[in-house]
Amino acid sequence: MLRIGILGLQGSVIEHTIMLERLEDVEPVQVKTRDDLDVIDGLILPGGESTTIGRLITDYNLKDKIIERARTGMPIWGTCAGMILLAKHIINDDKVHLGLMDIYVRRNAYGSQLDSFKTTLLIPVVAEYPIPLVFIRAPYVEKADGDAEILAELDDKIIAVRQSNLLATSFHPELTDDLSFHRYFANMVAKSTI
After folding, report:
1. How far, in Å, CA of 156 to CA of 191, rounded?
2. Looking at the 3D structure of the chain, how many domains does it have?
3. Catalytic residue list
4. Residue 84, SS3?
5. 97: nearest Cα among 168, 158, 181, 14
6. What is the pTM of this model?
7. Other CB atoms closer than 10 Å to residue 193's CB: what's the count?
8. Binding residues for L-glutamine
9. pLDDT tens per residue across span 106-159
10. Which residues does the Swiss-Prot or TrEMBL record annotate as the active site (predicted)?
11. Nearest-angstrom CA–CA distance, 21 and 30
């Protein structure tokens, strides 16, 4: 049984939990303490408010432990705000949070809440069919460096990136009925525990 944590401080925690519960051999775990980080095989940084989540990670004394687990190979997936938390470079903000991925991210790149939208896209490494994508005040990646691999682009904007054990998406798979991205991440976690 894979234990996949969802950082439970703010954001779409319940939505990710519900998606993970639909997968076989996966147990979702809400992560709020340093001890919680010791009992999981992978971690999801959910969508929400990146400044708030970043501050809470520090306030709850989780930052260095998350970085340490990432550097020792634990898979981490950041959705929307989680992408911002993972980035080493934030183009329109001075604050870097975890600084783990070689990506340059633009916060709120798609505009305000009113500019939120849905679309579908074929992402071959994730699914054999077009999957639904939900963007809410979403960031996107302007540039990926090093061994960061671009998984998906939409209108010439990078919206999904993987770098070794790290995954980041601009959009919210947890706000759809499609399990493709959660299954993809669970497979990353399964391979890391072998």
Report:
1. 31
2. 1
3. 80, 172, 174
4. helix
5. 168
6. 0.95
7. 12
8. 48-50, 107, 136-137
9. 887 666 665 689 999 999 999 999 999 999 988 999 999 999 999 999 999 999
10. 80 (nucleophile), 172 (charge relay system), 174 (charge relay system)
11. 12
In this structure, what CATH number is given to the domain that contains residue 26? Answer: 3.40.50.880
Residue 20 burial (CB < 10 Å; 0-12/13-18/19+)?
Answer: buried
pLDDT per residue as tens digits for the range 4-59: 999 999 999 999 999 999 999 999 999 999 999 999 999 999 998 898 999 999 99
**Domain of 130, in residue numbers:** 2-192
From residue 61, alpha-carbon distances to 4, 14, 86, 144, 162 in Å are 20, 22, 17, 29, 26
Given a contact cutoff of 8 angstroms between Cβ atoms, the answer to whether 170 and 78 are in contact is no
Helices (H), the chain: 13-21, 34-38, 50-59, 63-71, 81-86, 180-192
Rg (CA), the chain: 15
Q: Residue positions in the annotated binding site?
A: 48-50, 107, 136-137
Residue 126's nearest CA partner among 73, 179, 194, 64 is 179
